[in-house]
Specification:
alpha+beta, elongated
Length: 464
């Protein structure tokens, strides 16, 4: 009869007995000291874990994606075609109209030395990468234009003798707008080095054996990426023809969606084949995944390890919930035996503890995620408040000790090469972190409820 009545109750309530949720809430709300503490601490632990992991990953995303996007937009492009013939601009026009391509910009790249030219005398040189671009490169490539911020002058490459210099490079050479720079190409240096090795030229001779081309600084730019600001410059593409093979240049291609590489890459290879260039040994097509592969892999590994390390909080909380639920099973042996004696199955009792864990996990995850999203989306204001509180405490301590306190900054510009703290919230990562907190509690409770199978109602009721 008991089993029949239970089946009828399941049928009335859609196959799920509501008393399970009622008992689960009762075990959480019960104020017997230990029971209330065992409910509050897991919720607090999950909330702290979700909060910490969400904010840390958002800031890490801000730094990493900022670096990655600067590399892709300024340096490596999404797809590169090396050794593209200058006389096949018809094929280049077809590539520009491939579906998914947002820009296709020809360029040449030089490596060498830049040094100030003051009254005909050369100053201390720096090693530099000089990217030679068309006059309209920045109007074609909106992504690159968005990453290059002009600090002084203008981004005008129309005159062939102008050069755009990074802020750090300009500071190292004490260069200013309108100043003159000499460029010494590696192609000019290497023959001299070889001659010096063979003893055919005196080591004190000038590296180039003559006067070097002089560029006028038209603009000083900032990308926020130290490597580019300290060692990169831009010139007109025609000015670089004398240093490279004038019959070829490199084509940098930007995609509307850098993750969708296959379809555009297939069409580009098809255009190259139709133009009869596929047999050209100079032609080489590569993607952004091939460039800086080690760097991107290191960033991915760093992010994964951060997930694991901060995720240890959830493991500790899960163990706490596991032990708490096992203790509740032992404390509630008489109630469990009573439920079993009136028809509740072992699965029903385990579902009580499962729902207990679900409630704890859901409460903790929500309690941690709401402030985490608020902090991650207002990270600048959060760190300003944090710095103000710390500096307030330091000022009070310094007044008692009669010592001058230094200003505290979480990300000081003197140490970190950043203007502001970046933060980027990625939706699927937020969902993943939420599920980590939620499922860790649910799985721990389900594992602890296995202890129910060892309870024999007849034995318990006999002694109670």
């Amino acid at each position: 009869m008991l089993k029949e009545s239970q089946n009828e109750a399941r049928a009335r309530h859609g196959g799920f007995p509501r008393w399970i949720v009622f008992v689960a809430f009762r075990y959480i709300r019960k104020k017997d000291g230990r029971s209330s503490a065992s409910s509050a601490l897991p919720v607090l632990g999950i909330a702290v874990g979700v909060l910490a992991l969400t904010v840390i990953i958002a800031v890490m995303n801000g730094f990493q994606l900022g670096f990655v996007e600067t590399i892709l937009e300024v340096s490596s492009y999404h797809i590169r075609i090396d050794g593209f013939p200058v006389d096949r601009l018809d094929a280049l026009e077809k590539i520009k109209h491939v579906k998914g391509v947002s820009a296709a910009v020809p360029f040449r790249e030089l490596k060498g030395l830049l040094r100030r030219n003051v009254e005909g005398r050369g100053g201390r040189p720096i090693i530099a990468v000089v990217r030679a671009l068309p006059v309209d490169a920045l109007s074609q490539d909106k992504g690159m234009a968005s990453k290059i911020q002009i600090e002084q002058g203008s981004l005008n490459l129309a005159p062939q003798n102008t050069i755009l210099l990074g802020t750090e490079a300009a500071a190292r050479m004490a260069a200013r707008i309108g100043g003159k720079l000499e460029f010494i190409s590696i192609a000019d240096i290497l023959p001299v080095v070889n001659e010096n090795i063979d003893g055919l030229r005196d080591e004190n001779d000038a590296p180039s054996g003559g006067s070097e081309p002089v560029f006028i600084i038209a603009g000083i730019f900032d990308t926020g990426f130290y490597e580019y600001d300290a060692g990169w410059a831009f010139v007109n593409i025609d000015a670089a023809a004398a240093y490279t093979d004038p019959a070829f240049f490199t084509v940098g291609i930007k995609l509307k969606n850098r993750w969708n590489l296959d379809a555009p890459l297939k069409q580009i290879n098809s255009i190259i084949a139709e133009a009869g260039l596929s047999g050209n040994t100079q032609i080489r097509v590569s993607t952004w995944r091939d460039y800086n592969k080690a760097f991107f892999g290191a960033l991915r590994t760093e992010k994964l390890m951060m997930f694991v390390l901060v995720g240890l909080i959830f493991i500790v909380v899960a163990l706490n919930i596991f032990q708490g639920q096992r203790r509740i099973v032992l404390e509630k042996k008489d109630e469990i035996a009573l439920l079993r004696s009136v028809g509740a199955s072992e699965l029903d009792i385990r579902c009580v503890f499962l729902f207990n864990g679900i409630i704890l996990g859901l409460t903790g995850a929500v309690a941690g995620m709401i402030p985490a999203l608020l902090i991650a989306t207002h990270i600048k204001q959060f760190f300003m408040l944090l710095e103000s509180l710390v500096n307030f405490v330091l000022s009070i301590l310094s007044s008692f000790t009669n010592t001058g306190g230094e200003y505290f900054s979480v990300f000081s510009p003197a140490v970190f090469y950043i203007k502001e703290i970046p933060s980027r919230v990625i939706p699927h990562e937020v969902v993943l972190i939420f599920l980590f907190g939620f499922l860790s509690a649910a799985l721990a409770a389900w594992a602890a409820s296995k202890k129910v199978s060892g309870i024999r109602p007849a034995e318990v009721m006999q002694y109670e």
